[in-house]
Design a protein that fits this description.
Structural class: mainly alpha
Largest sheet: none
Low-confidence stretches: none
Shape: elongated
Length: 108
């Protein structure tokens, strides 16, 4: 039990609940300007690349994405799942970057 308390103690507030302890400085973490812009650019790139990929996958005429009857194959479903997941993660990263850029503009 002592080991669990040692591990969990930094995660508990003084009242013992699981809410995060305040930062010592009392301020929220701030991303640097280059990191914020990089994350925002990555999000925009993700939108462009993965939407284009999904469109190309849908129009695939090579026989990989659709069988002879026109039904989607396992290749189609796996690559669609990869595209959607990457698109959503890129969107989340881009939103973090956007929030960073906006926060920097408010403080400048």
């Amino acid at each position: 039990m002592r080991e669990a308390e040692r591990i969990l103690k930094p995660m508990l507030s003084s009242s013992g609940d699981a809410s995060p302890a305040p930062r010592p400085s009392g301020r929220a973490a701030v991303l640097s300007r280059p990191v914020s812009w990089f994350l925002l650019a990555f999000g925009v790139w993700s939108w462009f690349i993965w939407i284009t990929f999904a469109k190309n996958l849908w129009k695939d005429g090579s026989g990989l994405a659709f069988d002879d009857a026109g039904d989607p194959t396992a290749y189609f479903w796996v690559h669609l799942a990869l595209a959607v997941t990457s698109f959503l993660l890129g969107t989340a990263v881009g939103l973090i970057g956007l929030r960073g850029v906006r926060a920097l503009r408010r403080t400048s």
